[in-house]
Amino acid sequence: MSTRSGPIDPRLWTRSVPVRRYLVGSVVFSSVTTACVIVVAVMVGTVLGGAITDPSRRDPGAWTAELVVLGCAVVVRSLSTWARSRYAQRSALRVVRGLKADLLDAATTRRDLRGADDRGEWTTVLTRGLDGLAPYLTDYLPALVLAVMVTPATVLVIAVVDPLSAVIVVVTLPTIPVFMVLIGLLTRGRSRRTLDAMARLSARTMDLLAGIPTLRALGRQDGPSARIGELGESHRRRTMSALRVAFLSSMVLELLATLGVALVAVTIGLRLVYGEMGLTAGIIALVLAPEVYLPLRALGSAFHASEDGTEAAGRAFALLESTEGSARPGVRTQVPPTGALTVELTGVSVRGRDGWAPSGVDATFRPGEVTVLTGANGTGKSTILATILGLVEPDEGRVELISSDGRRLDLSRVDLETWWDRVAWLPQRPAIVAGTVADNLDLGAGGDVDAAARATGFDRVLATLEHGRSTVLGAGGAGLSLGEAQRLALTRTLASAAPVLLLDEPTAHLDPECTARVLESLVAAARSGRTVVVVGHAPEVLAVADSVVTASRPAVPA
C or N terminus of the chain, fewer CB within 10 Å? Predict the structure, then answer.
């Protein structure tokens, strides 16, 4: 379903302060430009008409005041155009940056970004989609404001000095917006379809990247390439089609504007030859005629920027509104800042694309115990951790936190920020941020980092790094191998002082010696009164469990 609401999305003005400021600035700059256009035309017509028709005033000194005013108007118009361009670029960056920040904040609070299609939509809007707002703000919006201000003002001046030229302009001028409407009807939905194609391509690419290890293990790593190629070709065809329409429509708009100016020029020339009008009035009307059409020509040229920009803005606001609409009402409960916590799941089920996974989970994760979540692949073990974190809301059942004083807190009504302060989480693909090793170790750490590094073997990794903890890492852990990045993230988790530890396959990529030390550390953490939940299926992991919870899914997917 299209999210466009016309060439101007009113939500841009109501929800974005930089856009409102930019609109005010555009009106100011356009007012200055309008005044300068009229002054330049009047001064050029006055000077040329007077100098040509009055031999006694052909000395430049006779027009000193007019020439000074003309020069000032030209300089002011040039400066205004330059300032408007710079202001537009900076404002566009602020608007896009603000919307991206709002979307990122909304994405972190959503609890239902489960499928690749959802992630592809958000990724597309956050990257290429919102970037389409920049030309909308820098090209289309200034042209629209100029068309609203310059065109009527110049037509009015032409009507004063030469009514016939004004009639010609008024008759020919509507051909441009009419043609723009025809273009709009022709290209209706084109931007939406282009963004849809981009979203599908992003989603499939993300799915492929996430599943590369599994595909390689099965020898099917080349299988999805044909589908990715088809999606890429579809996106290419849509993009080239949009470019063809843009170039052709711009050419026709230029032709219509040129013909309009030519008609004005021809009629003025004929009447000057037959002495039916004054030279000054003719020059003023002739100088102003192109200025009448210029904003509309620019508006037509930027029409596709309008489509892309409003489509991107519409999708961004739709995503924001869907997040606001799904926000949990009455979220007031704060998780106690101290004390042990028990996590209890009652009948927790989550519906995925392939059915229920997990289904009907009843489990209690207690302080002082190591609980191992096990089960076949695809039964929802990682999803159980996500429901405990509050990142995924169960379709059935509930998750409750039980404080040390026996108070029960329904996770659906808990302030997640206070809950996340009490949890340390190790996902299957841990986040390694761009920065130093020390920056990554300090994320959420509150315990003995050195002891945790010895347990995970990351101390040996540090010894091989030339700058130790000051070593700079790239985004995603660039500079470390997969195993080294896993050890870093595991060290960070074990060093956390949080009372609840959630670990998804923590011994993956570890040798037997490190695996034994990590499991000893987890047992020690549990014995100190912390709640430890581990996803795993290896015999050595199951051997340290105080209790085992087996995830499953129905025999027949719902």
Answer: N
